[in-house]
Design goal:
The structure holds two protein chains of two kinds. Chain A is mostly helical. Chain A has a single domain (7-81), classed as ACP-like (Non-ribosomal Peptide Synthetase Peptidyl Carrier Protein, Chain A). Helices cover 56% and strands 0% of the residues of chain A. Chain A contains four helices and no strands. Chain B is built from six helices and seven strands; from the N terminus they run βαβαβαβαβαβαβ. In chain B, strands 3-2-1-4-5-6-7 form a seven-stranded parallel β-sheet, sandwiched between helices. Chain B has a single domain (6-236), classed as NAD(P)-binding Rossmann-like Domain (Rossmann fold). The radius of gyration of chain B is 17 Å and the shape is globular. The relative contact order of chain B is 0.15. Chain B has helices at 15-26, 39-51, 66-80, 103-131, 152-172, 211-221, and strands at 6-9, 31-35, 56-60, 83-88, 134-139, 177-184, 233-236. The N and C termini of chain B lie far apart (36 Å). The chains are: A mainly alpha, B alpha/beta. The A-B interface holds A 42, 45-46, 48-50, 52-53 and B 125-127, 129-130, 171-172, 174-175.
Chain lengths: 82, 242
């Protein structure tokens, strides 16, 4: 069951997870694109698992296909969690 | 030491699956003994493993049922932590020459032997990626890469399983998750009852193999020592394919 979360909580969680997969912390922002951050499809699968573990939100393949920026991912998770 | 988690062996009530459950329990893994119908054998195996000091649980789920597989993983995560060793052993056969195989005989074998492995693998991978550790071993067969008349459906499922193994292996290799297959030849199990008469003479080793011999190979592939082995198929057939 998804729990209501804030933008900030989701951002912090995603930044931490992306840093663990090798993204440069100094480049992390809502506007940063996954391409700029060198976050590839396997990294996104791992981020989806983090989101499911932390917020109970399930992101399927079709959800991930259209995500280009960190901000889009944050907004999607917050929307699904509410 | 691997992270905390458990091992899931599908089709583990008997044969290669049961032998594999024993091997993994001996390695120290809590083992989920999955079965479809043979609850009695599964529970007997669980009691045996617990008596030897291991942790085990019998879990009913048909790998052909996506919802049941999903519930199986949810419940294991809750009780034992993530599935970090997955052995896709559940398999069936429904033999017949290709012109006589009906739709159901075709579909059931493909669904259990190949799609079942997809369903479990899909659910296992996310937590394995997070843990930076995972071992997936798919029980394929020498039939698939080799022909065996009367088993077009079985051969297709097992050849497909090998292709699936290789592709998933390269997708996740950089996260410490290995995906391999074993390809048993003629092994003394219920699945080969009635078809093994006289075949042992054609095997260079002049005998059929045992479930324990296959389980030993699976146990190696599931171990930390096999961390650099991925996308491989280990043939266990007494020289039949050589």
């Amino acid at each position: 069951m998804a729990t209501a979360v804030t933008d900030q909580e989701v951002e912090n969680t995603l930044y931490e997870a992306m840093a663990e997969t090798g993204a440069d912390r100094s480049q992390l922002s809502r506007d940063a694109s996954f391409e700029e951050l060198d976050v590839d499809s396997l990294d996104l699968v791992e981020l989806a698992q983090v989101v499911e573990d932390e917020f109970g939100v399930e992101l399927k393949g079709e959800d991930m296909k259209d995500l280009r920026t960190v901000g889009q991912a944050v907004d999607l998770v917050v929307a699904r969690a509410s | 030491m691997p992270p905390e988690g458990c091992a899931l062996v599908t089709g583990a009530a008997r044969g290669i699956g049961a032998a594999t459950a024993r091997a993994l329990s001996a390695q120290g893994w809590p083992v989920a003994v999955n079965y479809r119908q043979d609850r009695e054998s599964a529970e007997r195996l669980v009691a045996e493993l617990e008596q030897q000091g291991g942790q085990a649980v019998a879990c009913q789920a048909d790998v052909g049922d996506a919802a049941a597989v999903s519930e199986l993983f949810r419940s294991l995560q809750q009780d034992f932590g993530p599935v970090l060793v997955l052995v896709n052993n559940a398999g069936m056969r429904a033999d017949g020459l290709a012109p006589q195989l009906d739709e159901q005989e075709w579909a059931q074998v493909i669904d259990t032997n190949l799609s079942g492995a997809y369903r479990t693998t899909k659910l296992a991978l996310g937590p394995m990626l997070r843990a930076r550790f995972g071992r997936i071993v798919n029980v394929a067969s020498v039939v698939g890469p080799r022909a065996n008349a009367g088993q077009a459906n079985y051969a297709a499922s097992k050849a497909g399983l090998i292709g699936f193994t290789k592709t998933v292996a390269v997708e996740v290799a950089r996260r410490g998750v290995t995906v391999n297959a074993v390809a048993p030849g003629l092994i003394e199990t219920k699945l080969t009852e009635g078809i093994s008469n006289g075949l042992a003479e054609r095997v260079p080793a002049r005998r059929s193999g045992t479930p324990d011999e296959v389980a030993a190979c699976i146990g190696f592939l599931a171990s930390e020592q096999a961390a650099y082995v991925t996308g491989a198929t280990l043939t266990v057939d007494g020289g039949l394919s050589a």
